Amino acid sequence: MGSAKNTSKSANDRRARIAEMRRAERSRDRRNRTLAITLSAVVVAGVVGFGAFVLTKESDDSDKEKAAASAPVAGEKSWDAKKLGRDHVTRRVDYPMNPPVGGDHDAVWMNCDGDVYDKAIPEVNAVHSLEHGAVWVTYNGEAADADIKALGSKVDKTPYSLMSPVADQKGALMLSAWGKQVTVKSAKDPRVNQFFSKYVQGPQTPEPGAACTQGRDA
């Protein structure tokens, strides 16, 4: 009898221990699931939050660029675009401003797909490029080598822009678009980016989308 009771008690103890182990295991599983869900929620929230931050920053940057592009460029000179001739000519043209910002011009445009010329280019071809919406960066002998290099790098990366020396211009560094022109102090002048943002294929362009390749190349 005693042996049967001991055997029964031992079996009950084992069942109790097994049940307790299973309860502990289920409890661990619940904790692990809760932890996993919580961590997943934190990760998702972080990703969503970061994405929202990036989108907000990009939106803010875009708004700033738009605001800068719409604001007047300090010190900019403007000419009435409607009064600038647009005829194709084969003769030399005496432009009233240097570098010219518009007027009659050659039938062939100067390549302006980020083209950097180290020698003077024909004005009549460059003006045609402006008609297509290009920004023309020019410099004279007073310009610092570092500024010439920096502006050349910017032009090289910017479709619808070109750069060349103009020895007899008044300013060391000048930027021109159709009917628009500004003299800047250096390549770091914030008006450089503003002028590019505003006038590369800008609203002043008489022929937006016209080619800047397959024209004249020095």
UniProtKB/TrEMBL annotation:
Keyword Oxidoreductase attached: no
Entry keywords, A to Z: Membrane, Transmembrane, Transmembrane helix
Compositional bias segments (type: Polar residues): 1-10
Keyword Chloroplast: no
Membrane-crossing segments per the record: 35-55
Ranges where the record places region Disordered: 1-29
Amino acid composition bias (Basic and acidic residues), ranges on this chain: 11-28
Protein's recorded name: DUF3105 domain-containing protein
Organism: Streptomyces tsukubensis
